[in-house]
Amino acid sequence: MKDDHSKPISYETVRALLEKFDMLLESSPFDQRKMLMHLVIKQITIKD
């Protein structure tokens, strides 16, 4: 990411997008929610 020249995203923009994503998840059937979550989350690692 050191060569990334993109502009920062405002907090308000991120919040609005997450709210819309949450609404999309709530209104989607289970299989579609599962697919959306797989597209967003690549890996979860839990350390004890």
Helix content: 55-70%
Number of strands: 0
Helix and strand sequence: HH
Beta-strand percentage range: under 5%
In DSSP terms, counting alpha (H) and pi (I) runs of 4 or more, how many helices?
Answer: 2
Report mean pLDDT, rounded to a whole number.
87
Roughly how many Å apart are the termini? 29 Å
Structural class: mainly alpha
Assembly classification = single chain
Identify the overall geometry: extended
Write up what this structure looks like.
There is one protein chain. With 48 residues, the protein is an all-alpha fold. The protein has a domain of 30 residues. Helices cover 58% and strands 0% of the residues. It contains 2 helices and no strands. The longest helix is centred in the middle third of the chain and has 17 residues. The two termini are 29 Å apart. The model has no long low-confidence stretch (mean pLDDT 87).
Blueprint of the fold:
Elements: H1 11-27, H2 30-40
